[in-house]
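User: Show me a protein chain along with its predicted structure.
Assistant: Here is one chain, sequence first, then structure tokens.
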Amino acid sequence: MVPVWFLSGRAHLKRQIAARATVDPARLTYIQPFVDYLRAEKNRGRKLVLASASDRELVEKVAAHVGLFDEVFASDGHTNLRAHAKCAALTARFGPRGFDYAGNSWVDLPVWAGARQAIVVNAPAGLVRHMRTTGRVAKEFLRSTDRLD
């Protein structure tokens, strides 16, 4: 059924998979220094949003497990919330450059471009090097195996 679901778009495909998949958020890998950073920011009174291109059903489970997020932005079966669509949704909610964005993928470049600051988490070395050239990286949480020198 995957090819049939995909014909209706990525968001629809993600919704169909999410409806059939069992994901235990406790079994996912979390970058502990980043979680600690989020907890500290939350304790400072900062509003935290979990914005993901994954389907809302899965993202809400992760948000509930982590217990730090005030709001969830996610794909919803109609809109695939990635790249430019994610940037547009965050900008509509928080205004131009009204949010900092933590990401780990080349597809996050449009979101970082619309953010006030970039936070790079567990990204490939090439992307980390690229983001450093932008001068907009506020924080980095790198993979322990990366060598950037």
